[in-house]
Design a protein that fits this description.
The chain is mostly helical and 213 residues long. Helix content is 69%, strand content 2%. The protein is built from seven helices and two strands. The radius of gyration is 19 Å and the shape is globular. Bound molecules: protoporphyrin IX containing FE (2 copies).
């Protein structure tokens, strides 16, 4: 068995899934303090993933996600010889990153027009925050669609005999021809903790207090 996903990529994925679920439920229920606190933690998580995409393990690298459409089509037909995300999956991952960044940035500028506003609303023209609130709503629909596609792809691979979810849980895979270079995930967690503390101390104190009391 050879390690293909470092500890942070695995943690990032499952924390992201929990984060998005909490963000969805809290928005639906109108628990906006929880929505904000979770939003800030997911912001720190996503920023860490992008930094890890530059300094992290080979399979975390953003540069390893860039492939030609031809390579993606070939990968759909033949998925065996591959380390990390295959070229088709890479398009999905890049789409997720763009959708999540748009969701986070638009959230920071969103307002419910009554009581609650994101921390950047005060700094942008009101037309911007109107567009951002609309975008925050519409983009989430696209994100839901992408999640459905993602799950469909994983089920399809499972039916073809490839258990990707197990690989993402254990981080290990057999039949790997070339060993990827790994960087210990603990460094990424350190970056995540520093960014979380920084963002929470700037924007998170008030919603966190409201949540605790
Ligand atoms: C909110 C829902 C979800 C989102 C937003 C999401 C997002 C992502 C992202 C961004 C990646 C790329 C990871 C990286 O390189 O950092 C990924 C990979 C992956 N996800 Fe998800 N995911 C979701 C739910 C799930 C669920 C429920 C499963 C399992 C059943 C799953 C299984 C996987 C697997 C197996 C991979 C690795 C694919 C590969 O081998 O190339 N995901 N997901
Ligand atoms: C990946 C991250 C995020 C996700 C998935 C998410 C998801 C959502 C969803 C589904 C809604 C309800 C939209 C609607 O029904 O119109 C919403 C509303 C909202 N979100 Fe987010 N959000 C995220 C991040 C953020 C962040 C970082 C902030 C600000 C700090 C934020 C602030 C708001 C505000 C102010 C609303 C409006 C509530 C309302 O209209 O009643 N969100 N969000």
């Amino acid at each position: 068995m050879i390690k293909v996903w470092d500890g942070f990529i695995r943690g990032f994925h499952w924390l992201l899934v929990i984060g998005i679920a909490v963000l969805y439920v809290s928005a639906e229920e109108g628990w906006l303090d929880l929505h904000f606190v979770t939003g800030y933690l997911v912001l720190a998580l996503m920023l860490t993933r992008l930094i890890w995409g530059v300094i992290g393990s080979d399979t975390a690298k953003l540069s390893s996600l860039i492939h030609s459409p031809k390579a993606a089509l070939l990968a759909i037909r033949n998925s065996d010889q591959n380390v990390g995300h295959n070229p088709a999956g890479s398009y999905m991952v890049l789409l997720f990153f763009v959708l999540i960044v748009v969701q986070l940035l638009s959230g920071l500028m969103s307002t419910d027009d009554i009581l609650v506003e994101g921390p950047l609303v005060a700094y942008v023209p009101s037309a911007w925050s109107e567009i951002a609130s609309e975008l925050h709503h519409e983009n989430f629909e696209i994100l839901l669609f992408a999640i459905a596609l993602h799950l469909l792809a994983i089920i399809t691979y499972r039916l073809k005999g490839k258990n990707l979810a197990k690989t993402l849980l254990t981080g290990k895979e057999h039949n790997i021809v070339q060993k990827p270079r790994m960087v210990p995930g603990k460094w990424a967690y350190l970056i995540f903790i520093i960014l979380s503390v920084l963002i929470m101390s700037i924007w998170g104190v008030q919603p966190l207090n409201a949540l605790i009391n």
